[in-house]
Amino acid sequence: MSTVDTFGSKGTLEVSGKSYEIFRLNAVEGVERLPYSLKILAENLLRTEDGANITADHVRALASWDPDAQPDTEIQFTPARVIMQDFTGVPCVVDLATMREAVASLGGDATRINPLAPAEMVIDHSVQIDVAGRADAFQRNVEFEYQRNHERYQFLRWGQTAFDDFKVVPPGTGIVHQVNIEYLARTVMTREVDGALRAYPDTCVGTDSHTTMVNGLGVLGWGVGGIEAEAAMLGQPVSMLIPRVVGFKLSGSIPAAVTATDVVLTITQMLRQHGVVGKFVEFYGEGVAQVPLANRATIGNMSPEFGSTAAIFPIDSVTVDYLRLTGRTEESLALVEAYAKEQGLWLDADTPEPVFSEYLELDLSTVVPSIAGPKRPQDRIELTNAKNAFLRDLPNYAPEVGAGADEVGRESFPASDSPAPSANGRKHVHVTNSEGKEFELFHGAVAIASITSCTNTSNPSVMIAAALLAKNAVEKGLVSKPWVKTSMAPGSQVVTNYYEKAGLWPYLEKLGFHLVGYGCATCIGNSGPLDEKVSEAVNEHDLSVVSVLSGNRNFEGRINPDVKMNYLASPPLVIAYALAGTMEFDFEHDPLGRDEAGNPVFLRDLWPSPDEVEKTIASSIDRKMFESDYADVFKGDERWAALETPEGDTFAWDPESTYVRKPPYFDGMGMTPEPVTDFSGARVLAKLGDSVTTDHISPAGSIKPDSPAGKYLADHGVGRRDFNSYGSRRGNHEVMIRGTFANIRLRNQLLASENNGAGVEGGFTFNFVKNAQDTIYDAAQDYAAAGTPLVVLGGKEYGSGSSRDWAAKGTALLGVKAVITESFERIHRSNLIGMGVLPLQFPAGQNAETLGLDGTEVFDVTGVTVLNEGVTPETVKVTATKADGAKVEFDAVVRIDTPGEADYYRNGGILQYVLRSLVA
């Protein structure tokens, strides 16, 4: 609530006979030249100006923004709402429930812990593809989901009743980001404040990094860690520096055979190469009007993959048309248009071009069909080069395959159920699967082909194209290869409905792409098990099989523990690869099979025309579908309704629960924080390389029986088949501590320098207490018992990927005091501070290797204590002492970037800071 209006910006806007209170941007000189995204921030500051945390100087700083300057001005951004998915949302609600008890123990009112802004959670990450390729897959998977997640869902039902302004979209509804753009997003918010109906831009932060999908609707929002999201729910503004804004000009139009996925993979590669970490990206130019809203959302969705904070499109007539199609009221549509035009937020041909910090341009007509892989979204491969790229990368995953096995003549092509020919000397393994089908498995076999994830399943053009390609394939007599696990996980029930209306489901099902659930599924690691016999063959013979998915994440160890190489592709290409059965395939020259007349069938023979796709969309999608599907979106099915709901302001923790346990963050916490300290005698828990993701640090996928987390669950009477995933267990800190750094593809370089452990993968380290190799969890327990602090060493882009708060929580709970890297990704750096872990960077141009650090050293860090005096040091001194007494000294850059972050660190974390503030 604004208590100060220095600029006299408060006024009224009349729309359709209704009066709205607004804060006019034209009251502040200089705002008119700003990019769209910064105008949104300027309105946010005008509306929340209180003369203390948010002042007129903040507004002036934004109005006088220098596009060429490096960010150095801190502002406080107050998001209009918070959106969560259940993997990251459950620990949020666990923390809020714990905070209620902590407030009470400090003498405060427990109900003060309550969302002050609308908070909505969509349960979409818990469905696993246990059953696929059959008509009852959806029903079976939902049954398994409720069996596994009964405790979690009961807990969320409690939260829905215990907290005000907190709503839960039940399982089986859709993927969080698709539900957000199709229903939850307002574009312009309204709320009654002091008796007046106030209108203001819809903004949000979310506990999933792909919250940026809503940027396609002109809504400024981005992913934050769950820790920051909790603080935002409790009214704490998000502390940020006024960012640089990259203007990305779009021109031309998309060619016929190119999909939105190809466009987004091209943009991802361009922006990752340009460097946009910590920046906003904003699209402009005459090409914007040619980009459908679904394509804008697809581009916005991939913002974390290119590293930007947000990737936004301004509001225009395309935005309003989409809001109308998806069932928003005519009253809200009129308000969106009138408000955007009044505030200079509307884009049309007459809109003057804003100033930007940096400029990029893409002629959409130059985009070609693409995939990305085998382990990063930015590693784009033109489809025409996919086979050669696979052969180039294969020796990295199958060392016995020499670099000489690059090319293979292909005069024949595979029959419908025989393997693709492969380069001479490759191993072929004969398999009879659980259904009695016989085939050969080989390096590069497509083990998973999955249409899944928010990025593409919200986009009718690629989803209809996939279904039409399936129809054409079936009519030519083609089938998917028997070793491919095929699945279809749409982003909302609307997709199912338009498939049914268009009569396309039978063709998808004929190729094995049955409905398996509405959820993130394969993209989050819930691909489910491969056929038992396939899995045995892959592991026994160390085959490098692949997955192809229409997702946004293909990081190592994420998709499936049996699958080493993972490729992102558009939905129609996912189907094409299911037909091919191998990554070693040239779609231009290799036929996918023969038709009844014996003629070879190529991908070009199956690809639907843009006209056919558009006609199908026009005849099968309408406003009534969205109105019907979202009419009772918070109600859920009979399973959800039948769940017993605990009652009370505080939660009754079950000491036997292996899903939801009270975490120790506030144990023994007093009103006054302990002073921060220097530390000495620290050991390296892990020495890691470049591009270590939050999946490496805190995996979301399956729990191995012989891992510390698996042993914990077994000791608590949980059977192996009920282990579920790390993601689903995030409400239990005991599981998550044991799962920290437990990714099966993690490479701890500390084992290369000690104990001849080179090549060891997984959650292992060298334990200097035992002087032997050990699990990271067990080693951390030994260090804690000995009173030894810990550090982690990393390379470039440390913590990229999902906005996973457990990557920071687990790091802190293992006893890590500092993480020293070459560079951090934005969200993970702030999450570490939010958990009281110090993020440090090596001096510019230096890293562990150039400094001669191998991880066997003992570390001392000094200069931290000046934070107690209200000063944030630019650097601290790090001294690493080797076993022979030799010392390596350097000044590490302190990556506490704002005064607000310094407050969080001094308090031991953001939640402790908020808790003390609320009680005080």
UniProtKB/TrEMBL annotation:
Gene Ontology MF term list: aconitate hydratase activity
EC number annotated for this UniProt entry: 4.2.1.3
Cofactor: [4Fe-4S] cluster
InterPro entries (alphabetical): AcnA_IRP_Swivel (IPR044137), Acnase/IPM_dHydase_lsu_aba_1/3 (IPR015931), Acoase/IPM_deHydtase_lsu_aba (IPR001030), Aconitase/3IPM_dehydase_swvl (IPR015928), Aconitase/IRP2 (IPR006249), Aconitase_4Fe-4S_BS (IPR018136), Aconitase_4Fe-4S_dom (IPR036008), AconitaseA/IPMdHydase_ssu_swvl (IPR000573)
Boundaries of every Aconitase/3-isopropylmalate dehydratase large subunit alpha/beta/alpha domain copy: 71-581
Top-level taxon of origin: Bacteria
Electron transport as UniProt keyword: no
Aconitase A/isopropylmalate dehydratase small subunit swivel domain mapped to chain residues: 711-844
Bias type Low complexity, positions: 414-423
Catalysed conversion reaction: citrate = D-threo-isocitrate
Keyword Iron carried by entry: yes
Region annotation Disordered: where it falls in the sequence: 407-428
Record's keyword terms, sorted: 4Fe-4S, Iron, Iron-sulfur, Lyase, Metal-binding
Primary role: Catalyzes the isomerization of citrate to isocitrate via cis-aconitate.
Annotated family: Belongs to the aconitase/IPM isomerase family.
Record protein name field: Aconitate hydratase
Organism: Promicromonospora alba
Gene label: acnA
